[in-house]
User: Fold this.
Amino acid sequence: MANKIILGESTHPLVYGNASLDLNDFKNTLIFGDSQSKALDLVNSFTKQFIKEGSGAIIFDIDDTYNDEFLENLPIELQSRIEVFDPSHLELVPGLNILDVGDIGERIDITPDPNKITLSIDCFYNIIDRIYNLKVTGGPIFEQYFKNALKLVAAHPESGGTVADICRIMSDEDFRSFKEAMCDDKNVVDFWEKEALKSGGDASFENMIIYITSKMTPFINNSILFRVTAQPKTTVDFKSCIVGDKILFVRLNTAKIGGEAQHILAMLAMAQIELVLSDLPKYEIMSPNKPKPTIVIPHLNRFINKNFVNLLLQFHKFVRFIVFAQNSDVLKIENQDYYQEIKSYFPNEIKFRNSSDPNLNHLKDNQAIFSMHLDDLNSEPLLLKVVNPTLEVTAHQITNKPNFYIKDGMTEPEVRKMFDEHGKLLF
Assistant:
């Protein structure tokens, strides 16, 4: 019999005990609730249960719910599976380079797969679109310059292969010429040599310089973003969470890294997950010997862009999503292009009291209406009370304080020094 996931405790006076669902029947779940409800406690409850059952997991944490104290008090057998990505951890900063399409630990001078590069560039373009609304501030000329600049950057990673190097492509003629010489893609080289430098008017190269470099401002001027995204290699192992049982906590605390870095790093991490999943055969993701990998997302608004929708579209049957959205009206208003599509990928819906639905005002803080999807049928809504299963261990069981932080990366001075030396591998 499949293991059970506890949903909550019955509130009916004649029905006692917990309502539960078979692990394999637990589908993508969208949770709504206001800040006073226990919605995030329910997210926490599900998270604990899934990682206990052996599910690989990527858990986003924006308010220190899963701090070091929480992790240290997990059972020893779980601690060995845990890694933490925390961009505020200054001693050693993990790298998140969306243009690095090689495997973890692969040498930087390995020729990148052009198909993977194209997909990674599309993902990054979608992130820039979310930040700047390229329907208004972009256009086909911008897209042509921007994507060709990224392809030129990626052509020779040893001389600088990060998104921050786009600015050098646009402003440093020697650097651009060197990259052109190292690029095997004739279409890209022809664009820079025969089109970009010979175009006039709005499409002129001189006109496009500030147009493109200005949109890279966060990746250059925000020190948190720079020290994460300007590293040559991605050191965050998302793949092991998908095909294995690794548990990755992605800490993006607003108070520590700021709202801009939090929003952009959240989208970059989701894009990296999409890239990893796109590169894996479906049978490897859906191994019959282990539970589905689980992705836990709090405050959905901060993660939504086209990449997230693509992730749901392609992989909603292979990966389990547990997502908290504080208010359905806000979610709908701020994401009109994606709202209905996103909701269609979440057969399970759990509603706590929230301002967008006055019919739920009678609910107590720890009560919610559960509408679960079973075998292509919708269950009758259940009114349940949140329970929080305990996974903690007693202090005497902890012998050595573990180090959960990702051990591969660079210090901030190393990142700065490396970036300053980009472009010196010239003729």
